Amino acid sequence: MCFGMRLVRKFSSVTVPVVDIAKSFHHGSEAKVVAANLRDAAESTGFMYITGHGVTEETSSNAYEALRRFFALPLEQKMRYHASKAGGLRGYIGMYEQGNYGIDESDLRQGETQKEDALLDAKELYSFGPDLPTDHPDYHPMLFAPNVWPTAIDTTFQAPIEAYYKAVHNLSKHMFSLFARSLGRAPDFFEPHITHGMNSLNCIHYPPMAANAPPRQLGIGEHTDFECFTLLSQDETKGLEILTADKQWISVPPKPNHFVVNIGDMMARWTNNHFRSTVHRAANRETDAHRYAMAYFCCCNYSTTISSLMEGEPAKYKEVVAGEHLVARVSAANTVQ
Question: Does residue 10 register a pLDDT over 70?
């Protein structure tokens, strides 16, 4: 990490590309062009903005309004919906309950030793995910615990969050089809692997950084995302930074009605590291502004086997079962019991 007084950063001149995906929804030939642009971004930075995605500003703003109401509640009320009560990672998770995310084989930092004194995250979040019957072969209690809704204190919370979840889930399926095209596969190539994916929506609140916080404190520590890719919505307060190939940090500021899309470890493994799972971090360094973000982690089925899809080249990684890999990574990064 590049730390000085309050995280002094040396930034690279690398920029995060913007891809307009609007025409990919209706035009087959245009979808190929969009897919090629996504592949260029996935291979160069592993991060991109997308626009023309079809998720309305109203859908996003309604969800943010619900989140602001919830996170403004007293802690004792929020703790009534803590994830520990659901038996998995669904519901409320408080400040300093996550961190130490580990280093995957696909990580730029592979070979480095993670700091043993790394600070836990200065953030709180509410997590949601898909339902799966407990007798399903791919059920895991950590990943598919029942959703928890704070209806007793806010009867208007659930509807806008569910509407947003549905919108980004539909977008994620389209993005899977575009990534399939980008790899020279049929648009439906990933469909058998995402019928009941280990997806999750983390709705995150980064309070203003306390004046007495340690200089190394972050809202979320350096990490790569564990899943296939992430659809991130940010409010107007900046804070996201990514680590470039030359190990410099660049800011990824919010853009109105844009999603940030980043490649995760599983897609890096699937593409034999052609798609980059890029290290990133976030912190709210404002003294009077709260930062909110909604991260939808797009994943495959628990039983999916992840191995290289790239023909004619040696595989960089051993084959893994997606669910086993994800559970190990998630367990190490959470203090929630």
Answer: no
**33 close to 20: Cβ distance less than 8 angstroms:** no
Integer CA distances (angstroms), 208 to 33, 57, 65, 175, 293, in order = 41, 25, 18, 33, 14
* Predicted confidence (pLDDT) at residue 110 exceeds the cutoff of 90: no
Q: What is the 8-class DSSP label of residue 11?
A: B
Question: What would you measure as the largest C-alpha separation in the chain, in angstroms?
Answer: 57
If you ran DSSP here, which 8-state letter would residue 23 be given?
Answer: G
Q: Looking at 114-123, 139-148, 238-247, which range is the least confident one?
A: 114-123
Residues 6+ apart with CB under 8 A from 207: 95, 122, 123, 124, 284, 290
User: Is residue 258 within 8 Å of 51, Cβ to Cβ?
Assistant: yes
pLDDT of 9 reads 44
Residue closest to 130 by CA, chosen among 90, 92, 190: 90
Q: Which residues contact 29 (CB under 8 A, 6 or more apart)?
A: none
Q: Which two tokens stand for residue 287?
A: 């003294």
**Integer CA distances (angstroms), 250 to 36, 44, 93, 324, in order:** 24, 14, 28, 32
Vertex 131 angle, CA 129 and 137, to 5°: 115
The token pair at 127 is 């997590």
What's the CA gap between 255 and 4, in Å, rounded? 28
First and final C-alpha spacing in the chain: 29
pLDDT at 1 over 80: no
What confidence score (pLDDT) does residue 109 get?
A: 46
Query: Could you give the CA distance from residue 64 to residue 290 in angstroms, rounded to a whole number?
Result: 12
Q: Whole-angstrom Cα distance, residue 130 to residue 201?
A: 9
Average pLDDT over residues 19-25: 97
Residue 113 has pLDDT above 70, yes or no: no
Structural element, H or E, at residue 204: strand 200-206
pLDDT at 279 over 50: yes
In this model, does residue 198 exceed pLDDT 70?
Answer: yes
Decide: 305 and 319 in contact? Cβ < 8 Å. yes
